[in-house]
Each structure stands twice: as structure tokens, then as C-alpha cells.
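This part of the workshop introduces the protein records we will be handling. A record pairs a protein's sequence with a compact description of its fold. As an example, a complete record with its sequence and its C-alpha cells follows.

_____
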Amino acid sequence: MALMSYPNVPAIMYKGFGGFFENQECESKRIEIENMIASYETKRGNTVYIETYCMEMESFENSLRKNNPINGLESMKHDTMGA
């Protein structure tokens, strides 16, 4: 789970990333996800504060996307996050 805070936005934005089967895999991807979000927002000219967390959650088998290096990040390119 990535939480983002933007100046002059009275809410915390969030983006969930799923499909990590082991906590160790999630922990190893957290910084990579933070860096990718920061790079994306910098290119858009946004200032952002980012924190990421690994949270255990049960899910349906078909909810897990396989063969995606960082599940969910690609969809950020189409989201309208930020200020």
C-alpha cells in the first residue's frame, strides 16, 4: 500500500499493489515502488510525500495478477493522482 500526501490537498491519496505472495518479496519491492511513484510525480511537476507499507490480506485467486513485476504500478499512468 502506498500513501501519498500532496501540498494543498486535504486528503491522503492511496494506491494498492497486490500479488506478492511472501512478505519478503513485498518488502524488497517497497523502495522500488516509492522511487517509481516519486519519479512519475516529479515528471508531472508534483511535490509528494510517499510512505509504503506491506500488509497481509486474503484475496480471491483470480484477484492476483501474475507475471507483472510490480502489480498495479502500470495503472498509475492512467490515474489522476496528485494536485
